[in-house]
Design goal:
Distance between the termini: 43 Å
Radius of gyration: 25 Å
Helix content: 10-25%
Number of helices: 10
Number of strands: 34
Mean pLDDT: 97
Oligomer: single chain
Largest sheet: 10 strands, mixed
Structural class: mainly beta
Strand content: 35-45%
């Protein structure tokens, strides 16, 4: 893996403000940490804002140390703000991406622009939540916000986030829901907020709520999800947007849509990376992403012509073939470019279905049936790969007995694809609600199969997410499903495989009834976005080598058990359990003295013949301490996919040293709505 060069000698000397308070109109104060040039009062600089609920004091502190001092050393103010009701900030946070969050951010941006050390120009940068709200706030058009760098984010909160996938209930609704709940329940640091830390913590414990309950209540694309989805009106975003992501991440799709739909200056960058900043992400190659950001900021916050505005709109990594593995240090491949999207270099290759065959010839009119066991999909890994942990899909040969397999003959020449594969299929279902899963794989001569892309569709959503109607059992209809975007090279001698199944566990929960789909081969086809090499590819300059500011020191007090991921099947009962354990142990941050520990377990069980047996349980245990300050938190959430309802059971306990200040359980049920 490519090392990161550590930079300590910058063009401008840096000073840090550990905490300052930004007042809101209602009297609530938000906590901010700022890095800026020492001479910024006499030579003001633009501010770069990262606005998150993930605890600046200890949650993102390692990442912040690499990034914001680097920006400050190059003539910017790096500003990391804890959102209302999180970290060291006051108030309550009652959900994700609420209007209150955006309103507060507008105030923060205006406040930053007025500071004596700020030039009046502000940019926003963020990954995941911070990438989301950068786009959302841009759509509110605050005058001082001049540009955004949005990583691993979405334009569509309903169908391209952790909640629903093709209208199917995602298991991440529970996994991320429990994670977010745990974050929302954590205490502020007494060294920042003083003796009132306990009162602020109790306010959160009793007021921040369990956000996942909203996501189970809102099962359709209603106003709840339209809010904060810039796809509802792309014209709201006028400022320059740099959209960044990776093939191993959960959010590459929105990059292509934003390049196509936004009207202002925009640029897209997609590497092989997981859910991390590209200067330290895996799989590699890592790039000099902070230098790339400086070119963007210099162009749009300082008015310096860096040339970035004249470069191709899209730069993407075409991955070379790689045998399946749960983690890669690097993915071989090469950078390519398109001047716009849809790219003029991308065409279509149509492969028709015949019994177990993909070919350019139209297939015979044969009907094949598939009713997968509920355990189909266990080789898929995580919906969102975090890169630094082994969560990627493994060998797809293990799925061959769970799906209908269609495969080409060995390719006679190499094929490269870039964009969205699509599957058009004529099918019928014997149940009104059913899932269709389509997985695209690369099959090597010896038989190993690497997953390239996949798509999932709740067939009730076959028209779109606003026109939801059950299937008429036995009636054949033509359905089109867009698979996840990808950039991949297939070599001569390899095969292209399409696998069709009726479940995809534990990416999505199963439908309430076991369904059988009848696939009409002669009227079904796979459409690949084939890309020929372009002259523009040869004009690309190499990215600079990755570098950052100095990493934060930390002391390991107790080594945890690390990351574990397993699948086990009881050979007597047939119950299958998918489990992920991540135990980070106990560490001390010398610069604050905080001692932290965190462990979480995600456990999903199911019987292959019973969709209503699906149960997911997620737990988090966290602790924060320094001297007399000792706070502990434990949360557990369970979702049962019952015949008619989603049943959610939650339990939380919180301790101030040995005193239990919260011990609360709750059970809620939400009627299943055609899912």
């Amino acid at each position: 893996m490519q090392d990161i060069r550590i930079v300590t000698d910058f063009p401008r000397k840096i000073r840090e403000i550990e905490n300052l308070w930004i007042p809101m109109p209602d009297g609530v104060k938000l906590a901010a940490r700022v890095w800026l040039p020492e001479d910024a009062e006499s030579d003001p600089v633009p501010a770069i804002l990262e606005y998150l609920p993930y605890r600046k004091r200890d949650g993102t502190v390692e990442r912040d140390a690499l990034t914001h001092p680097y920006f400050a050393g190059h003539g910017y103010a790096g500003v990391r703000v804890d959102m209302r009701g999180s970290g060291d900030s006051e108030g309550l946070c009652k959900g994700e991406y609420l209007k209150q969050e955006q309103d507060d951010c507008l105030v923060v941006i205006e406040w930053l622009a007025r500071q004596s050390w700020c030039s009046g120009s502000v940019g926003m940068i963020g990954i995941s939540w911070g990438g989301f709200n950068g786009l959302q706030v841009a759509a509110r058009r605050p005058p001082a916000l001049k540009a955004v760098v949005s990583l691993c984010s979405t334009d569509d909160r309903y169908n391209d986030d952790v909640h629903y996938l093709g209208g199917a209930m995602m298991c991440d609704n529970l996994m991320w829901g429990t994670t977010a709940w745990a974050i929302a329940m954590t205490p502020p640091d007494p060294l920042i907020v003083g003796d009132r830390w306990r009162d602020l913590w109790k306010q959160r414990l009793n007021g921040n709520g369990i956000w996942m309950q909203d996501w189970f209540e809102h099962q359709r694309r209603d106003d709840f999800y339209k809010h904060g989805s810039i796809c509802e009106d792309y014209s709201d975003v006028e400022i320059p947007v740099y959209a960044v992501g990776g093939w191993a991440d959960g959010y590459p799709n929105p990059i292509f849509r934003m390049l196509e739909k936004l009207s202002g200056p925009r640029k897209g960058l997609i590497g092989p990376w997981g859910h991390k900043y590209p200067h330290f992400a895996m799989p590699g190659p890592r790039i000099g992403f902070l230098q790339e950001c400086l070119r963007w900021w210099d162009q749009y916050l300082k008015g310096i012509n860096t040339g970035i505005a004249d470069e191709p709109m899209l730069r993407a990594w075409i991955q070379d073939p790689a045998r399946p593995a749960a983690i890669y240090d690097e993915r071989p491949g090469r950078w390519v470019a398109e001047p716009a999207w849809p790219g003029p270099g991308v065409g279509e290759k149509v492969l028709n279905l015949a019994p177990h065959v993909l070919s350019e010839a139209r297939g015979e009119d044969t009907i094949l049936e598939i009713s997968s066991p509920q355990t189909a999909g266990l080789s898929s890994g995580a919906w969102c790969g975090y890169g630094l942990m082994p969560t990627l899909p493994v060998d797809q040969r293990t799925e061959e007995g769970n799906a209908l397999i269609f495969e080409t003959a060995p390719l006679t020449e190499a094929v490269e694809i870039l964009g969205f594969p699509e599957f058009e299929v004529k099918l019928s279902s014997d149940k009104p609600v059913a899932l269709l899963s389509a997985t695209l794989s690369q099959v090597f001569p010896e038989g190993a199969a690497s997953r390239i892309s996949y798509g999932i569709l709740n067939l009730s959503h076959r028209n779109d997410d606003l026109d939801i109607v059950p299937m008429v059992p036995g009636r054949a209809e033509t359905v089109r499903i867009k698979l996840r975007c990808c950039g991949q090279r297939f070599e001569a001698g390899e095969r292209i495989r399409l696998a069709l199944a009726t479940s995809h566990w534990p990416i999505v929960f199963p439908t309430a009834e076991q369904a059988t789909l009848s696939i009409h081969c002669g009227d079904s086809r796979l459409i690949l976005p084939v890309r020929a090499p372009q002259k523009l590819d040869d004009t690309l300059g190499a990215f600079l080598a990755p570098e950052s500011a100095a990493p934060m020191e930390q002391e390991v007090l107790a080594k945890g058990d690390g990351f574990q991921r397993s699948v086990s099947t009881d050979q007597v009962t047939s119950e299958t359990v998918y489990q992920v354990v991540n135990d980070g142990g106990t560490v001390r941050h010398p610069h604050t003295g905080i001692v932290l520990s965190a462990k979480h377990v995600d456990r999903f069980s199911i019987h292959p013949d019973d969709p209503t047996s699906a149960v997911g349980t997620c737990t988090w245990e966290k602790s924060y301490g320094r001297g007399d300050w000792q706070a502990r938190l434990s949360v557990t959430a369970t979702v049962c996919a019952l015949r008619d309802v989603w049943r959610i059971e939650t339990h939380i306990t919180a301790h101030d040293r040995d005193e239990r200040i919260v011990d609360r359980s709750e059970v809620k049920e939400y009627r299943r709505d055609l899912n």
